Every structure is written in structure tokens, then in C-alpha cells.
Amino acid sequence: MDKVIISAAITGAVHTPSMSPYIPITPQQLADEAVAAYEAGAAIVHIHVRDPETGKPASDIELFQETFSSIKQRCDAILSPSTGGGGADKNLGVLKAEMASVNLGSVNIGIFPLAEEERDWKFDWEKPHFEGSYDSVFKNSFKSIVTIANACQEFGTKPVCELHDLAMINNLAYLIDRGDIDQGTLENPLSIEFTLGMLGQAPATVDNLAFFVRTCREKLGEFRFAACGAERQTINLQAVALAMGGDARIGMEDSLFVGKEGQLATSNAEQVKEVVQIADALGREVATPDDARKLLGLKGLDKVNF
Predict the structure, then answer these.
(1) Which of 54, 95, 221, 238 is the most exposed place for a label (fewest CB within 10 A)?
(2) Separation CA 194–CA 217 (nearest Å)
(3) pLDDT score for 85
């Protein structure tokens, strides 16, 4: 087992300001959280952006640019934007980031049960944000996946293949056969994240993670992988993935909690430190950003556009 690459997913598009006062919202807050996560041991920082006034999930390229530029001025972390918003292929062309998420299929992300919880809503968009998922789909058609994958190839951006359910392994295998996604080599391996545990996704269990990894190996060959689970499931998956030789993904996009008692995390860095402790206990060294660039075959920070 080689070095552990830790990815910090620092805000996401599910949690809302009423759920935690520690969710980063503005470009400055996002940059501060990213740098702190890097200092705690994260080599990669996965970025979503939000409306700086209300905290509502957004996809404005200007917010990405401001956030990315601020981070780059302060550290050499690998930055990986979300492509879940509209115009993702155009955003990739503007940023030319080293990595970017690519979701391998549509999924019903059901966060509507959260609207039923008693909560002091800070903004009027929050409750409808949850309720709206009852009749909406996180749409990733084959056409849109190919568009984003081709943009990654054009700009030398490594795709992080997000698999929410078992069928998406077939989707990925098909796109590799077509040549839309690179099969990978030892010097430039395929990168996969198993995203489990939310309503609409596969359950975040040890058995499922092992089955997903085994099935991917049978269909795809070798690859690097990490796993993330919703809320308090995620730290358990980190321990299992690291023991299996995988990497780690942790952060407030996936869970707002830290520690065995499940208290609110006050920062992404707190969560990264938990993973570092697990890696230390398993005798696995934590990769620096430069280590990760070599292990993943990335183009380098000097070839980005921010």
C-alpha cells in the first residue's frame, strides 16, 4: 500500500446554513477552509461554490475563480471543482483545473426528509431546497457525461469518476471502451470515488464498498479509489477504504460531524485530522500534493488557469 491521498470536500450542495454555523459560504471562507484542510493533511480540495449572501448552492465561474485564485496564492493543494452545476464543460475550459468530478449517471438524491425536521431556518430558500428533491433528479445523461469527459481530455484535467450506485460501473466501463474516459496506467491511474449512503444512493456499508471495489477491478482493471458516506457513516468508510489500500475523501460536503459522539465539526481540518490518525494507525504515510500529482499523473499547478 502506497501513500494515502486525502481529498477534502469542503462544502457541497446539500447542507444549508441552518444545519451548521461552520459551513463555509463566501469565497474567502472557502479559501480559508481549503488552506486549513491542506495544512491538516489534505492533498486535494474538492470545491463547490455558494451565493456569498445567502449560502445557496451556485455554479458561477466568477466565484470559482475568486476561490481558486485565493487558495493558489496560499498553498499548492490540488484543486478539483464540482461539475454538478450548469455549464460545467465551459467552467472546465476557464479553470483548466488539475482534476474535476464527473458523475457517471443520474440519481435521485432524496434530501426531502430533512425538510420535516424542526429547525430555525435562516434563509427562505433552505426548506424548499430540501422539499424540491422529492420531484427532481440529479441528471447526468450519457451526453452530458461525455461532454464533461471530453472537456477534461481537452484541458488535461483528470476526471474523478463519481459512482453513486452499482449500475454506474457499467456506464464507466462503456465510456472507457468508447475512449471518452482514459483507462489509466500505473503512471496515470483511473480515479474513482464511491459516493454512498444518501437516499437514492447505494447503502454505505462495508460489504457494499468491498463489492463495488471488487466489481470495478473485474470490469476495469486497476485504479485508485476513495469512498465517502453520508453524515456519520463517512468516517467508518474512511477506515475501511484505507485498510483496503484506498485513499480518503472527507469533509463537510459529506458530513457535518466529527468524533465518536457525533458533535458538529467546526472545520474541515478537524475531519481531515481524523483521517490522518487512521492512516497513522495503519502505518500509511499521508501524501503531499506533489506526491499525489506523481501518483495520479497530474499535469501540474503551473498548467491551470487561475
Answers:
(1) 221
(2) 13
(3) 63
Joined together, the cell numbers standing for residue 82 give 464540482
Q: Give dist(CA 167, CA 30) in Å, integer.
A: 33
In angstroms, rounded to a whole number, what is the distance separating the alpha carbons of residues 222 and 216? 8
**Distances 155 to 50, 94, 103, 151, 290 between C-alpha atoms, Å:** 25, 9, 18, 6, 20
Closest by CA to 81, choosing from 49, 121, 37, is 49
- Strands (E) in the chain, as ranges, are 6-9, 44-47, 49-50, 57-58, 78-81, 99-103, 158-163, 191-196, 224-229, 248-250, 257-258, 263-264
**Residue 191 β-bridge partners:** 160, 224
CB 91 within 8 A of CB 102: no
Residue 234 and residue 204: Cα distance in Å, rounded? 8
Instruction: State in words which class domain 6-303 has.
Output: alpha beta
Phi, psi torsion values for 61, nearest 5 degrees: -65, -30
At 178-212, the pLDDT tens digits run 999 988 888 899 999 999 999 999 999 999 999 99
pTM, two decimal places: 0.96
Helix (H) or strand (E) holding 293: helix 289-296
Residue 87's pLDDT is 63
Per-residue confidence (pLDDT) for residue 108, from 0 to 100: 96
Domain coordinates of the chain in residue numbers?
A: 6-303
Q: d(Cα 154, Cα 280) in Å, to the nearest integer? A: 38
**Spans of the chain below 50 pLDDT:** none
C-alpha cell at 288: 503531499
pLDDT at 259: 85
